[in-house]
Amino acid sequence: MNTEENPPQGAGNRRNERLALMALAGMALVWGYNWVVMKKVLAHVGPFDFSALRTLLGAAALLVVLKALRRPMLIRAWPRVVLLGVLQTGVFSALIQIALLQGGAGKTSILVYTMPFWVIPLAWAAFGERIRGLQWLALALAAAGLLLILEPWHRHAGIASEALALAAGLCWALATLVAKWIKRDYPMDALPLTAWQMLFGALALCLAAWVVPERPIEPVSYFYGALAYNALLATALAWFLWLFALQHLSAGMAGLSSLGVPVVGVLAGWLELGEVPGGLELAGMILIGVALAVISLRPMGGRK
Question: Cβ distance 98 to 209 under 8 Å?
């Protein structure tokens, strides 16, 4: 038998794992740099207008991918999916864009990625999931990091932006619980669920953009490039890479690798926008990063 034409199953698995890690690295680069893109494009468009356009195009891109892959597009539990879309795509995207008006791309990305720490107590309240072991350590590290970033003992202009970024993380956490609620009672494929919830969230954002008066859109090349980046790369490609990685890696390993997103966001904001964090701020970011790593490590070695 020709082993080159029929590689051993173990070799195929190792190859898929390498490809999955490469996919996660690509996803982290695309999503991480998008924080800079979303920040810079606000010089040419209002936050609601851009949120509505990017999510609408992103949903359309995902629906095209579904059609091209000939994947089932029908889903159930429409009221819950609509709620998921309003939270995860609608309110979440709007809060991010408004936070970026005054806040730095790197700091905003770190604060939004506090989502897992909101999920822990919310899951305790909603589903009775007890807080155990390393989760307490992660929560303590995250709380200390937040204190260093927010510096509540000082009044500063960025506090409103930071509060909005934290609210976006909380909204993401609530959406995570809704997604878990859907999965518990109506198991469905992740890709069509993502596409439909994004479409419903985009429609909610379109309504908000119609109601809230904003500056006219400047039809410059960066505006169109940012839309294309969000629809094609940050939505269609990045979600495909994420789902591919989840098929070939453990959830814990994938979650740990996704920490590259805020890291890329901080570095990109530092290099491209000159967002140099102060000493306490940098220490707080590091503490939150360590806390995220701790909470991601638990499912890798713990019992399922």
Answer: no
Q: What is the pLDDT of residues 206-223, one digit of tens each?
A: 999 999 999 999 999 999
d(CA 236, CA 63): 9
Among candidates 16, 72, 18, 41, which has minimal Cα distance to 234?
41
Nearest to 54 by CA among 181, 170, 198, 194: 198
Model confidence, pTM: 0.82
What is the Cα–Cα distance from 107 to 95, expressed in whole angstroms?
Answer: 14
Q: What is the pLDDT of residue 51?
A: 95
Query: Residue 214: enclosing H or E segment and its boundaries?
Result: none
**The tokens of 182 are what?**
């859907």
DSSP 256-279: HHTTHHHHHHHHHHHHHH-----H
> Residue 6 burial by CB count (10 A; 0-12/13-18/19+): exposed, middle or buried?
exposed
Q: How is 17-55 classified by DSSP, letter by letter?
A: HHHHHHHHHHHHHHHHHHHHHHHHGGGTS-HHHHHHHHH
The domain ranges of the chain are 27-301
Place of tokens 């596409």: 195
Residues 23 and 4: their CA atoms lie apart, in Å, by: 25
| DSSP states of 173-196 | HHHHHHHHHHHHHS---HHHHHHH
User: Which residues are CB-neighbours of 194 under 8 A, at least 6 positions away?
Assistant: 62, 239
Query: CA-to-CA distance for 31 and 230, rounded, in angstroms?
Result: 9
